[in-house]
Amino acid sequence: MADTAHSGTPARPGPMGRMSDLLWRRPGLLILLLILPPALWLGVIYLGALFALLAQSFFSIDPFSGLISYELTLSTYGELFRASNMDIILRTVAMAASVTAAAAIIGFPVAYYAARYARGRWKALFYLGVMLPLWSSYLVKVYSWKLILAKEGILSWLFETLHLTWLLEAYLSLPVVGGNSLSVSWTGTFLVFLYVWLPFMILPIQAALERVPRSMLEASGDLGARPAQTFRHVLLPLALPGVVAGSIFTFSLTLGDYIIPQIVGTSARMIGQAVYQFQGTAGNIPLAAAFAVVPILIMGVYLYVARRMGAFDAL
Amino acid sequence: MTTAVAFRKVSRHYGPVRAVDAVNLEVAEGEFFAMLGPSGSGKTTCLRLIAGFEKPTAGEIEIFGKPSATVPPYRRPVNTVFQDYALFPHLNVRDNVAYGLMIAGMGKAERHAAADAALEMVAMPGYAERKPSALSGGQRQRVALARALVNKPKVLLLDEPLGALDLKLREQMQVELKGLQRQLGITFVFVTHDQGEALSMADRVAVFSEGRIQQVGRPEDIYDRPETPFVADFVGSSNVLPPEMVARLTGRKAHASLRPEAVHLQSEGGLEARVTGQAFLGAVTRLTLDVAGTPLSALLQKGQPVPATGDSVRIGWDEDALHLMERGNG
Hints:
The complex is a heterodimer. Chain A has helices at residues 14-25, 27-57, 75-80, 83-116, 120-135, 138-149, 154-161, 165-172, 186-210, 214-222, 227-256, 260-263, 271-279, 285-308, and strands at residues 60-61, 68-69. Chain A is mainly alpha-helical. Chain A has a two-stranded antiparallel ribbon with strand order 1-2. In chain A, 31% of the residues are buried. The model of chain A is unreliable at 1-5 (pLDDT under 50). Chain B is α+β, with helices and mostly antiparallel strands. Chain B has two domains: 3-231, Rossmann fold (3-Layer(aba) Sandwich), CATH 3.40.50.300; 232-325, CATH 2.40.50.140. Helices cover 28% and strands 34% of the residues of chain B. Chain B is built from ten helices and 18 strands. In chain B, the strands form four sheets. Chain B has a six-stranded mixed sheet, with helices on both faces. In chain B, strands 13-17-14-15-16 form a five-stranded antiparallel sheet, with no helix packed on it. In chain B, strands 2-1-4-5 form a four-stranded antiparallel sheet, with helices on one face. In chain B, α4 packs across α5. Chain B is elongated. The mean pLDDT of chain B is 91.
């Protein structure tokens, strides 16, 4: 066009060329085009659904007709505080907390080894080992654990072979963690949760540890700190954002899961199962919604406390 | 005089690579000792061997007369200033400096007072509450220095501590470091690849090349009387004359070093040379010459006429400027 006179090369022909020129002149437009689809998806569909859920929790169900009454009320949240519902919440939080703690304890050394010592082929092997379980179907993994933990399963066979059946029996006779067999005990639920979510703990810790330069640990030793002190005063604080990131995964995934406790575990329900049943068979959408808000609140409190305790200071 | 650090035939090999190869070395107490060499010459590995981050493949390192083979870094009476400073990002400046004292079990009020005093010493008071990320490179360097010195080490190890600073700051820190060392009387072992830095600060310099020590001596000795062509070339880019040429000049067949500043132009006599280039360096101009196939450089003081490239000139030097290196190639 007319302004080719100003530029060294002629304007590129065709609509694509003009488009490129336009985007080059207005980089903001390109960013807008890139960000718009995911923003729509996240904003409208995801946040919208979340908002609809939140709104539902402020309605209540008419006890006689079983119909939803669309008047704003806090009575549904009040129901959460009934003893049986509180049990569900406390049970789920206890499970999520113990799974998270165990995953951090098991995951840290693995991540530490991978970040500090593994090189080349060993590193590839580490990633493969950690990621491989994520490639197979979640249901397959859970059912195979049921086979491992069942009364006639691999684990009880192993105990029998080692003449340790009495040990397993003694453990199963313990209150709370025990049961008829491992596959119908809280221990079983815990083990499956731990297995399924462990990669989500290891990978963020490993990423955090990778960012800690070797000289930082050497400096601590140089200043007189024994390895245990270096761990406590330098390595752990620097890895803490990774641990917190991992624990967000393990904690929230455990809080919301409704399949694992259904397949492996006792008949006592967890939050996810309660949501599933209230919105399905029971048709009590408001209570299901109120239950679904609980993990969101817990995670909010968790992140707030983590921040106050300085978990993100090293970021 | 007490020996602070002694290397007895110390080697450190990584597979086939001999990072440090049978090094013998003695650093006296209270000395400012520089390890000078190009990257990969083994000087930093030597420093890490003293700190205990590396273990020697062979040989023994003694620190104040005690063998150190079984002593872990956290029990050695040495502290290090790291090249990247290695300040703890999650602690503020005061807690960084007080870290060693905290580990040693000193109470909070006491160690904070000591840290503040150390920050004062490195001219960084008022920065105690900041995080390292809020400091400039030069400020971090000072904090790292304070963090090491507050523990009153017997030997302070410095790994290219001035490498990341700009020229002006570097020159200022050179003066301050030297003053600090005098004032505290602590043994400093200083690793650098900058020959000017080593010569201006150190009491003695060890020149490293390919895992071996080429020469140890006072800066003047290293500069004026290099023992190997490597030292002559690396320290102050001296001219190295080949044995054939030296044989023609002196009758003795050996490498010889010739300081560029000792070479002058003259109207008659001396050697004939062709000018191959000039570089203006401020106070002086560096003239590159070709003497019968041997490259040579000369420094001309400001105000002297500078010949053009391709000109034929005659050069000479003071009698004692030519230094023979009988040790050969090292």
